[in-house]
Amino acid sequence: MEFNGVEFSSLHRPCARRRRAGRATRLARVAALLTLNLAATHAAMAADDSWLDVEGRIQYSFYTEDTRALSDVADQLSLGEGESDAMRGYYAGLANYRLALLWAERDKSRARNAVEKCVGTLGAVVKAQPDFAAGLALQSACLRTLAMIAPWKPLAGSKSTGQMERAVKLAPKDPRVLLLEALETGEGGRIDEPSLKKLKKAAAAFEAERQGVDKTPGWGAAEVYTYLGRGYLDRGDVLAARDALERALLIAPDFALARRLMTKITSG
To answer: What is the pLDDT along the chain (268 residues), one digit of tens a residue?
Structure first.
């Protein structure tokens, strides 16, 4: 076909080549971007798997009440001066928090040392990352424990309340935030009606979380059912207590606290 003496196809051929070249360039850019995103996703998944392994070690040591193994993990995770790596600091805090709970009835000095490490480590983390709700809630729990172990530090209790309020505001559906908020009188304290209500809310949040993929942090489901079991047991509701504790032991068969509570039911 001709137009004013020029073949129509030859008029458009350079434009067609440019369009094809442009499409090829765009496709190459998209492919490169997908490759980078895939590499980042794989790196994130590998990091999550690594922290899941660390969390598993901390939790197993806590469930079996192995203070030596837990101390080793805490030492390996300890941050150097000026460091504020969020996940490493979080798990260092969690390990020391668990140690403080295990030592609370056996050795107040060791318990205080562990919980002070938890407070300090998480302090550096949340200072660097103020919107880290999980870190704020865990630091609040450590401050609360410190106030109970060292009653001459009353400011720890008031600071704990402030940190927990910030954590709940930032992450109102996070099951670990809800769990730690529910234990406002401490892990060994009385579970009153408001605490029991909050524990039920936390349990529902854990059930919703368990429908998805594994995430970090991911601990707490066995604990929420164990404390629910204790709350029901204190009220004489043996059937509800048994159901909650069976759920806890299904999640963490080696959880010594849940086993002791279950023994109260089966031997009674």
So the answer is: 443 444 434 444 545 555 555 555 555 555 555 545 444 433 443 456 789 999 999 999 999 999 999 999 999 998 766 666 899 999 999 999 999 999 998 999 999 999 999 999 999 999 999 999 999 999 999 999 998 887 766 667 678 889 999 999 999 999 999 999 999 877 888 899 999 999 999 999 999 998 877 788 999 999 999 999 999 999 999 999 999 999 999 999 999 999 999 999 998 6
- Whether 220 and 181 have beta carbons less than 8 Å apart is answered as no
Residue type, 211: Q
Angle at alpha carbon of residue 109, lines to 108 and 112, rounded to 5°: 80
- The full DSSP string for 186-229 is -TTS---HHHHHHHHHHHHHHHHHTTS---SS---HHHHHHHHH
How much is the pTM? 0.80
